[in-house]
C-alpha cells in the first residue's frame, strides 16, 4: 500500500504543477478552451486518484475546486483575479494534504481542516450559490453532505427517453404514470409521445396488462444514472433507452478524456464518464455473451461497442471516444512498462562504481604502456573507450532539465507582485538546458532568493518606473545556457540597479570596510555578499534583514560554482551563476610541477604553448596581440625543487576571461573522478578537489575559476600601477 500511495503522491504532484501552470496562464490572459480543460483534467485526475487510494481528504477538497473549474469550462463564470487567487490557494492546500499523506497521515488535523474550509468559503461565490453544484451528477455538495440540486436555468436541448413498459407492470402493482410524475422531480417533460403500436383490438385487450410505451423529450440537469434510477422498480419489467442531449455529448467526451490514465475496458470507461449506466453495461455484456455462445466457439466475440449502439444505450461518438481513450492508455502503459523508477541513492552508487572503474581502467592502461606489448596496449585502449562510454551514459542518467526548477518561479512572480503591488513579468529561456540532478536540487534555494530580491529590491514601483520613463511593468529574466563546460544561469532585472555609493556608505557604517579605503566598482558591488549586509531601510516579509546573499554565495561555492554581479544604476542588474555540469566525473588535462600532479578541467583548456624565456620576471605575456596574465603553480603552491629549463603555459578560459597556468610538463588528457577534499583543506584557494591516478598517486584538481580571478585581479592592480606611474611622469614633465 505504501508503494501505491507513493505513486499516487508523485502523479498528483505532477498534476498539481500542471494545474498551477494552467491557472497562471489563465490569469495572464490565456482563454484557450484547451487550457481551461487542461486545468479541469488535472483537478479531475487528482480527485479520481485520491478516490482510488481512499484519501478522502484530498478527494473531497479537490471536488470543490473541480466544481468551480467545471462552471468555468461551461462558460457559466468568467476568469477573474479573485477566483485564480482562491484556486491557487487551493493548489497549495492540496500540496499540504499530499505532504500529510507522505508522512502517513490520511486525515487532516484541525488547523489544516480550518484552512481548507476558509479556501472553500473563498470559492463559494464562484459556485452559483451556497453549495458547490456538480451538474454531471445532479447533486450538490455543501459541508460534505449530498443534497438534491435545484434547477439552474433552462436547458436548450433534451434527454431522449424511450420506454416500453412490460405487460405485467399493473399486476406487479406499478403505475406507469406514477413513474412519469416522479420524473418531473428531476426536470420537465418538453414533449411526450404515447406509443400505441402494441395495443391489440378492443375485444382481445386484457385490462390488467400494459400495452403502452412513451418517447419523451426531457429537460434536466440530472445525470443519466439519476434518470435511470427513476425507473429502478420497473427496470426488469420494461425496455428502457436513455440518450443524452447534444449538449451532453461534448461534456461526456471531455469527461472520457479526463479519466485517470488507468487500464480500463471500454464499458468501464463509458460508465465512469456517466455516458452509460451499470445496468446498460450488464445488459450489453449479457447480450455479447449470448451472441458468442450462439455463434459457436470458433467465432470471435461481437464488439461490445456495436452492441451498445444497437441497443440505443450510447451514441457512436462516445463509443469511438472511449475506444480512443482505451488505446491511448494501453500505448502509454506499454511505454511506461519500459521505464523503471530508480532511487537516487542507487544511482549515486552506480556513479561511484563507474568512478572506481575509471580509476582502475587508467591503472590498467598505464601498466599496459609500461609493458610495451602492443596487443595489451590495444586491448586497454578499447577498454578505456568503453569505460568512457559507460561513464557518459551513467552521468546522462542523472541529467535533468532545469525547466522544472524555473517553472516554480511563475507562481513566485505572481504572488510577490501582488504582495508588493508591482507589475512584474517573468521571462524564462533555456529551460531545456540539462545539468546534474544533484546540482538542480541544491540550486533551487539560491535562485529563489535572487529572484525574490530582484522583484523586491530591483524592480521599482509602477509610479517610480513611470517617473523614470520606463514601462510600468518590470521585467525579470531567468536564463540558462552551456558555456565552456559549465552551465550559466542568469537572473536579470530591468529595475533601478545597485547604488554603489549607498553600498559603500553602508559598508563603512557597518565596519565592513574602512573609511578612505579604495575599492574598484566590482569590489564595491561584491560587498552585498558580506554576512548581515543590507542597504534596505525597511524590513519586509521578503527581505531586508541582511540574511541571504552570503548564504547564496556559500551554497553556490559549495557546488564548485561562482556568482558574479553586473549592475547599472537606473538600468538594472544581472546576477550570473556558473556551475559545473556534474559533480562526479569530468574529462581532465593532466600536468605536473616537480613531483606533484595537477588536473585542469579539459572543457576550460583553450591551448598549450611553451613559455619561451623562463627568466622573465613579469607574470603576463603577449599572446598574438592579447595580454595574457598567468600564474606559476610552482610559486603559488611553493613546490620544492629547481625550476626546469623549459616550462609550458596552459591557456584556460572561464567566464569569457583568459589566463595562463605555468606548469613543468604536459601529460595529456585524463578521465578524472572528483574526490572532495577534507575539511582541513576547505579554504585552500586554487584547489577544487582531488583525484586518484592510475599509479595510485593523488593529483589535485585545479580551481580554474579562482586562478583566473587571481590573474585578473593581479592584472588590474598592475594596470593601476602603470597608470599611476604615467600620471607621475606626466606631472613631473609638466613641472
Walkthrough of the structure:
- This protein has 735 residues and is α+β, with helices and mostly antiparallel strands.
- The chain folds into five domains: 2-144, Four Helix Bundle (Hemerythrin (Met), subunit A), CATH 1.20.120.160; 159-335, no CATH class; 344-398; 400-580, Heat Shock Protein 90; 585-718, CheA-289, Domain 4 (OB fold (Dihydrolipoamide Acetyltransferase, E2P), Beta Barrel).
- The chain has 22 helices and 24 strands.
- Strands 9-11-12-14-13 form a five-stranded mixed beta sheet, covered by helices on one side. Strands 22-15-16-24-23 form a five-stranded mixed beta sheet. The chain has a five-stranded mixed beta sheet with strand order 17-20-21-19-18.
- β15 (585-593) and β16 form a beta hairpin.
- α3 (56-73) packs antiparallel against α4, α4 (81-102) packs antiparallel against α5 (110-123) and α8 crosses α9 (266-273).
- It is elongated, with a radius of gyration of 37 Å.
- The model is unreliable at 129-156 (pLDDT under 50).
